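S.,

Sequence below, as promised.
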Amino acid sequence: MMKILMTLISRNHERMKMNLLRL
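The prediction came back faster than expected:
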């Protein structure tokens, strides 16, 4: 369970980084 949450969070973090770079 924890591993899944960590993976999801990491994916969202990467997406946010990409969005910030775009801006």
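Residues 16 and 22 are 10 Å apart (CA to CA).

Coffee later?
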